[in-house]
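Below: protein 1.
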Amino acid sequence: MKIEKIIFATGNEGKMREVRMILSDLGVEVLSLKEAGIEAHAEENGKTFEENAVIKASEIMRQCGEIVLADDSGLEVDALNKEPGIYSARYMGYDTSYHVKNQNLIDRLEGKKGSERSARFVCAIAAALPDGRIRTTRGTMEGEIGYEERGENGFGYDPIFYLPEYGCYSGELSLEVKNELSHRGKALRLMKEELRKLKEERQ
């Protein structure tokens, strides 16, 4: 299958840098929605990260007729019944700052220690192909909710996500290390293998 162009359904420049870095050796042009001149809004009403990613990728693929990748990701906190989960971006309202959201999660875990604060970042990526086929991959990064915000290198919930194995917060990781460890990095590398298989298909 000939793949010359992929559209990644985001307008987030930080995410696009990560995506391009990981997919760079595929030999395919990777465009953001803005670069592709697409204005799209899909109603993400799925019950799982995968369902939301598929909804987004399929809707935009229908509009442009190209291969579209879309991701849905979030934070699951075990002690809070896996909240905020698929509602991570909407948690406490879209316009609420992550500083406020992060503090709320820390406050709700008051009195809990170590593994009682277990959490994970989850990312599902969907590829919608013009022939109607769908591929999905999932990556996770396990850790704990810290007791304070730390680090300037991340965004969202990164400053409160502690990695016991590395003795630091996700917000303190360099971009290279984060790509290696992160939920999105893992899901993207798995998706890259799926795309490679598609490229190798006989015409």
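Below: protein 2.
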Amino acid sequence: MSENGSLSPADVERLLSDRSAEARAETVEKIASSLTERQFSAAERKEAEAIFRVLATDAEVLVRKSLSETLKELPDLPHDIAVSLASDIADVATPMLTFSDVLSDEDLMEIVSSQSESHQAAIASRPIVSEAVSDKLAESGSEEVVATLMGNEGAQISDKTFEKVLDQYGDSEKVNAPMAQRSALPITVAERLVSLVSEKLQQHLVTHHDMSPETATDLILASREKSMIGLLKEGASSDDLVRLIDQLYENGRLTSTIVLRALCMGDIDFFETALAKGAGISVSNVHILINDKGGNGLDQLCKKCRIPDGLVEMIRVAIEVVNELEYDGDPGDRARFRDQVISRVLTHFQDRFDAGNVDYLISKISKTDAGKDAA
């Protein structure tokens, strides 16, 4: 470079004649950096761009990689140079694919279709990915590429694309975990994910996305029936349970029906902890109140939690059944326990309900007590 920062004949000569890839790469970086800092005149800029076009096809990867790295964020880089570098081998293309705003959606989708998984992954990690490009990546990309896309909050993803990803990779924790952690998801996608991801992510989905209380009730209890009923036997994960109930309560999703359903499924820890949260007392005091032989303790507790009258009697019957039964966690015991509780509750209310399962029972009660406050 000359003393005033302009492009000197010596710079051009060195680039075109020096056989050392390292030396050429160093000079490329100097010229490209000066270009980004707008130290060239219009004529010198044209000359530099002409040199870059030649260097974009340099036999040495190091030279092309240096060029791509230095020019990746140049806003007015000639389109043909950007496309040439972005279509190169992955080591050269990655900086340009990840950062260049010169590349259009059409350019990116063409590269997704024609280049390697590494090229696709670079595109999936761009600060902003349009819905069209995201859809193309979901359609053509590997599991790794789709996982990268799902973990990119800057990726704009349509409902259709989310559904497509779930259809193909729903069982992949590598894909569904970052999807579940996204700050915003369509409700239909969140619902599908609940049954596919780990317990921790189930809780995140139910408490952080825009689900109705009824949907949250269905999903969280369905997931707990599979993975959290161990609390009954082992007393494990109590901190996680408290955090879950706190979040449900804060988001208005700790409903009276979720409390009843937990009890009918034998999930005593959830039941007692939920009532403790609603009443603002300790779990140990809840345990004492619900086992008050006179029944006044349970009445007072339910009133404090604003549980509708139509549910209080059901809770009382379910508690009696649960106290009579034994749950030991052996294979099949979970279903036996649940069925016995449900059967007894239904028998008690046989004149009022013609149902064969707790879901129907609770849906009837929800309609009967519609509009009343939740626990």
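The two ends are 74 Å apart (CA to CA).
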